[in-house]
Amino acid sequence: MEEVVVLIVGAGPSGLATSACLSVHSIPHIILEKEDIYASLWKKRAYDRLKLHLAKEFCSLPFKPHSPDSPTYIPKDMFVDYLDDYVKTFNIQPKYQRHVESASYDEADGKWRIEAKNVLTGGVEVYVAEFLVVASGENSGKYIPELPGLDSFSGETLHSSEYKSGAKFENKEVLVVGCGNSGMEIAYDLSNYGVQTAIVIRNPVHVVTKEIVRVGMIFSKYLPIFIVDIMAVLMSKILYGDLSKYGIRRPTK
After folding, report:
1. How far is CA 152 from the centre of its chain?
2. CB 94 within 8 A of CB 38
3. Which helix (H) or strand (E) holds 162?
4. Mind listing the domains of the chain with CATH numbers?
């Protein structure tokens, strides 16, 4: 059993940032990471053309702003280099291939008891911490809904976390399900490779550019959010006009 003040679950950007903040204040802590590397989503499961969807001034980690000469929307490889340098700067040393199986809080002791399986040895390690930080990420696991007929579909199916480039789909027909950041950008990437691309959108959406979002985030420092939302929608309408002819409906509220 190992005791520590703070235990962090996950060595993605949030976990790394938490570790850096604790190190600056000399607070003992441990990071447990289920993969064999930090920032595994960025290093293993990100598509080639990925860039930060927000401007760099909103995406720096604590105590280390991005370089002034870096692009506004930082490419994946450049962001990975930034994370590598961040880990070196703050001497962050996660314990890899630890899969947290349980975490319980002891009211009497006022401490957390965390059990993690060491994937390499197969053994279970026990940690006791005063504070538990869960930084496992909202996108750490892929989800594919059960769709009638999907099992018998003769074509290829894959989750966005497995997508790398549209090159392998050249001159094919591809349906993208979902219009979040990944869905929209993957559809755009496919079209650049001559792929006949269609996209399924479940609900009405507002289509905005990264620059509109950037302007909105800047104004959100000074104006109420509902006013910023109105401004963003207005800019989108001016830029794109009526998108219903493409099957894209805007929310009515």
Report:
1. 31
2. yes
3. none
4. 2-134 (3.50.50.60), 160-246 (3.50.50)
